[in-house]
């Protein structure tokens, strides 16, 4: 069993409009845009990162906004819900703030946690969960008080036709099963980033998801450094997983592999961080390009939608 994985690092999804995506995460959810860059493989498409003040591992939601992308079909083989942690007693504030900016607002109790579920305009599933013992500092720079501010992720829910193989994988990755209620089982990792829970929802008769706007592209797990990442990679290869070589993503190093249920997993390092090419006071303000695309800056900028 692995011990290097420390909860979630980031979640990356697909959106249909960059400006709308930017406005929702910064102005409605009050997150900080910590990086404005582009997709390594499609440099005419933004890669936008939102999180806490410094983009701490376990706080960062990232997007590829493909303009006018067709909405994905919800189903199995995907991350169905990304869950943020908020302070106790803050859900009434969030219900009022989300208002017409989100779809399908629903208050629920899930594994003893009071939650507010909602969807973005692209249909992507989120929830805010009141977590009493989360001591992380939320970002308040976009006008949300500390007693309401999002602390980072709490976890995510994965939808699968069968959860057996994923249970084995999560256990191998260092997660322990905590409880099962109905068709949902909860797993957690100790001493993580704060984004320490994964719920597996078993939906044996549901159709497989089709990726598009509102779909999670991949979910990333955190390791402290490159040495730990190489240990994880070797262990996954020994277990039979097809794992990519280590890829330099400028702000972290990444490896990827496809899980039995079809979800793309990434293992990302906590180093070097989002301040490697920008001062912390100005994170996310300037367009940062991967070095292989810098000579195309003028052309790339001409294709990108202006962002506030």
From TrEMBL:
Residues 152-270 form the VOC domain. Pfam families: Glyoxalase. InterPro entries: Extradiol_RC_dioxygenase (IPR052537), Glyas_Bleomycin-R_OHBP_Dase (IPR029068), Glyas_Fos-R_dOase_dom (IPR004360), VOC_core (IPR037523). This is Glyoxalase family protein. It comes from Loktanella salsilacus.
